[in-house]
Amino acid sequence: MDSAHWKKIQDLFHAAADLPPQEQRAFLKNACGDDDKLAAEILTLLAEDSQGSSLLDRDVAHIAGQVFDESAATSLAFKEFGPYRIKQMLGEGGMGVVYLAERSDLGTQVAIKFLRDAWLSPARRERFASEQRTLAQLNHSSIARLYDADTLDDGTPWFVMEYVEGVALTEYCRRNQCSIERRLQLFRAVCEAVLYAHQHAVIHRDLKPSNILVKNDGSVRLLDFGIAKQIENLETPVEQTRDGLRLMTPAYASPEQFRGERVGIRADVYSLGVILHELLAGRLPFDFSNRSAAEAEKIIAGQAPEKPSAVANRAKESQLATDARTPSASKTAWADLDVLCLTAMHKDEARRYQSVEALIRDIDHYLKGEPLEARLDSLRYRAGKFVRRNRRSVIAAAAVVTVILGVVVFFTVRLAIARNAALAESARTQRIQQFMSNLFQGGDEAAGPSDDLRVITLLDRGVQEARALDADPKVQSELYQTLGEIYQKLGKLDQADSLMHSALEERKSIFGADSREVAESLVALGLLRADQAKLDDAERLVREGLAMSKRHLPANHPDVAKGTAALGKVLEDRGEYDQAIQVLNEAVRLQSSGAADATVTPELASSLSELANTQFYAGHYGASEALNERVLGMNRQLYGERHPLVADTLINLGAIQLDLGHYKEAEAFDRQALEIDRAFYGNDHPETASAMTILGRALVYEQRYDEAADLLQQALAIQERVYGKVHPRVATVLNDLGTAALHQGKLDDAEADFQRMADICRQVYGNKHYLVATALSNIASVEMERKQYAQAEEIYRDVVRRYTEALSPNHPNTGIARIKLGRALLRQQRYTEAEVESRAGYEILIKQTNPTISWLQNARQDLAEEYTALGRPADTAKFKAEFALSGNEPK
Amino acid sequence: MRESAGKTVMPPDNNPAPGFDATNFGTTPEERRALDHLFSETYEELRRLASSVRRGDPSATLNPTALVNEAWLKLANSPEIASTSRLHFKRIAARAMRQVLVEAARRRNARKRGGPEGVMVTFDETLGDGAQLGNDLVALDAALEELARVNPRQATMVECRFFGGLDIPETAELLEISEATVLRDWRAVKAWLANELHRVR
User: In this structure, is residue A237 part of a structural domain?
Assistant: First the structure.
């Protein structure tokens, strides 16, 4: 057939088709003339047309049903292969079929998963291989293990897993009429397995009871990592299409999965919350049966899930309702269970448990009868809002929301400990409990803290409550101390001071002026003084406390180590790096009990990290690098590969590389850190933004200004959204953004960025703060670029004055500013004045243990030029020689 | 099978896998990858559909139109698809469906003809309506290839309407022809294809 022939056929077909059947034959005979073959062809088509039933009239869906029918589901029967003998099908999904098989040589039962129709697309093969890799890296008693994997002769990939004979979690609980405690214990075991996966950078994404089996011995197994995700792969753009709900079970899917967004570990937290809801209430929080995906999404976004307690109470006939009436699930217990469950499945990711670890902690709190950390969820949330609303006052002390959040939780636990201690030794249980509930519940328990309840108000109320505890001085002093530390972290240093002072005085009168309790207070007060920039006092107090601790306690007591570490920190703040290094080494020695292969503890890691920082400030890059590597290993061991503390250490390693002029290496570290923060906090979190800023900085050094500017703009948008337009974090980004703009030749943009930075620093820190000078100095750099040397000179003079007052005449920043001033003068050919500034700056920097080489080189260059102009060839030669000699050093 | 060097029904690597041919659509590797994912999802949706139809699930009333629409809704936000118009997307999905179905049928036929003796694993085939349909699909595919040679536009029309569930107005818009022309072409082409299928039976 050719096109012309086909055209002819169609024309005749259409002409004939509209005629009555009896006339068609005559028409064709006439139209086709002698061409009987053509006429016959068209008659055949007309016959097909009138018959009307063709493959093309059938529904593709049904055809698909038929065609796929035989390939796997109904009649797939394997013979033996390798050591495996296939017994029966266990299940099938969109992707694979799972069979029960026996290993003939070992007689054990295994499950084998085959990828059906592997030939169809590389993406499917990749997904299957990814599940296999995921399983291979997970080695946990509650996760079904991978045993073997290969490909069939026809190209079908398969892998062999542990066969788990058990029933779904919910079914198990129903059958065995498990108590709430038992349910929570099982659920906790599931959480442990999920946490383990998260620590190995794997998000399950399809958690549901049918993927969680309970064996006869009561142990749980997590199955089906078919759509699990490596956290590092989340960046790959096409993955977004695969993150879609399509692969997920809607009843357990998080709102962000419904929205098709990139999901993180908190999606698993949500699914766990739904499972918990089902375990507690006996049914799912939302009924999606007979709902379309769009309807389900609407429900999940718009409706609040009912409290499990309400559902359980309503379902009187259910086994759980019976439990609910038992003392083990009192009304108070239900209130906690509601909070636990609804926090895990909060619609807003930011208000959910931020990790499975946090969820486990609260389960443990519940099981031990301790207050839940999630009770503070709304409080934390409001704390954040409070900080945003009262930016200026709070920022003044550089308190950041995240710190507050962490701190409030941390101290709540401490308060709980204080309370428990009090309970043990005092009969005044009621009062303490009331203290706690008044402090954190703000009256109406069900409603939570009222809207205008602020962190500070709350703490102030706590202080009043504490003051009322006169009859209980021990508890009172503990509360004072704790509340004081909270105020300190919030930047309310005056309140902190007064409370910690009260704690100190009280302890003196209870335990005696020379006691281990007083020693502890002295060290804490010393650290507060360091925050207040009263470094003499700080050092004196910490030394006094440490000496006292040593008198009362064995040399290897944690308090002694803590005091030693505190002293190291204060010395570091003082810039006494050599001493600080010595002291911190001692702290490390104490915390590792002298052993080289000491148990890794958070305290030890923290001291080593402090030591690494000190070595960095002291310019000992090699030592700092080695220490940071060690800290990195420890933090990974303590917190897992992808914890923010690991990211912090990576950033420190990057900073070293940056200072060494190894920009590429710095970039690599910063990128790793960014990936971790992004996976942990999400894309729009200030910590992620901060990692972006640091990476952006490295890119500026690499002269990749466009990429840097792009990243920095994103970071700026996030910080502004979270902290508002006026915040130190915003200023930090503006600084780097301005620098990138300056290098891009966008001078007006650069000036605007630096100007904003200056304004923010003025508002936040006050006009005399050194950061204002930094911002001004950057504005002057823009003027230099514009060749407006007189303007630049004027600003630099101001900057030098500011640095001299805010820091000291010999501070490196002062030195750098003078070198810059010298250059502004040099460009105006005012050689005599220029030489004075360049030389002064040079003399300051050359004395530093960690001279900023690039500025020193600038000074040498300028000086050589100035001495030439001034007719002092010997001096010129000296600086030219120095310049050349240092040329090979890192920038 | 680590040890076995048994003969193969369809060698996995030496023969080019007859997977989704994305080269007509995507130009960059990213686009091709995106399309491959799209293709995979379409395939898996068909799979699920097939099993729900088999189970007699009353909610299994999804037709190709609904399926493609749903796929569009879910994928529309992804950056690769965002630049693709809805119609173009449907066109891709239709192509995916055609390949899924035809390749499944072809592969099934290959298995039925039986691999060489001694293959340790085989699929137990039952002949039924599915077998005839499989043959028809393979024949339809060949006929469409033939049609594409003489009138590519009409071949595309069949692909979109039959495999992609596009309605008449959508088909007209995509092919930039009038609805009347679509109707007219559809009638002639359908008759011709039906005859081709009969001929090979």
Answer: yes
Q: Which residue among B38, B54, B150 places its CB closest to the CB of A6?
A: B150
Residues A664 and A704 in one domain: yes
What's the 3-state SS for A791-814? HHHHHHHHHHHHHHHHCCCCCHHH
Interval A520-541 mean pLDDT: 88
Could you list the residue range(s) of the whole structural domain that residue A701 is in?
640-766
Token duo for residue A586: 């001692």
- Under an 8 A CB cutoff, do A81 and B1 touch? yes
Task: Please list every residue in chain A whose beta carbon sits closer than 8 Å to the beta carbon of residue B90.
Answer: none
Residues A52 and A118 in one domain: no
**Amino acid identity of A777?**
S
A69 contacts in chain B (CB < 8 Å): 50, 54, 130
Whether residues A207 and A125 share a domain: the answer is no
Q: Which residues pair with A151 in a beta bridge?
A: A157
Calculate helix-pair angle for A265-281, A331-344, nearest 10 degrees. Answer: 150
- From chain B, the residues in CB contact with A63 under 8 A are 101, 133, 137
Say yes or no: B193 contacts chain A, CB-CB below 8 A: yes
Question: Which token pair is A741?
Answer: 């703009």
Q: What is the DSSP letter of A436?
A: H
Q: pLDDT digit string (tens) for A669-684?
A: 999 999 988 877 677 7
Give the tens place of pLDDT for each residue, B62-108. 455 555 555 555 555 555 555 556 777 777 777 777 877 787 777 66
Chain B (39-68) residues lying within 8 Å, Cβ to Cβ, of chain A: 39-41, 43-51, 53-54, 59-60, 62-64, 67
Whether A448 and A388 share a structural domain: yes
Catalytic residue among A206, A224, A472, A736: A206
Provide the chain A residues 229-288 that lie in CB contact (below 8 A) with chain B. Answer: 237-238, 240-242, 244-247, 260
Stretch A366-380: mean pLDDT, rounded? 67
Q: Residue A183 domain-assigned?
A: yes
A472 is catalytic: no
The CATH number of whichever domain residue A759 belongs to comes to 1.25.40.10
Q: How many domains does chain A fold into? A: 6
Q: How far is A643 from chain B (nearest CA, A)?
A: 28
What does the pLDDT look like over A59-84, one tens digit per residue?
776 777 666 654 443 334 456 777 88
Domain end, chosen from A300, A335, A369, is at: A369
- Asked if A132 and A149 touch (Cβ cutoff 8 Å), the reply is yes
Contact A14 B188 (CB under 8 A): yes
ipTM of this predicted structure:
0.73
Distance CA(A462)–CA(A470), nearest Å, equals: 14
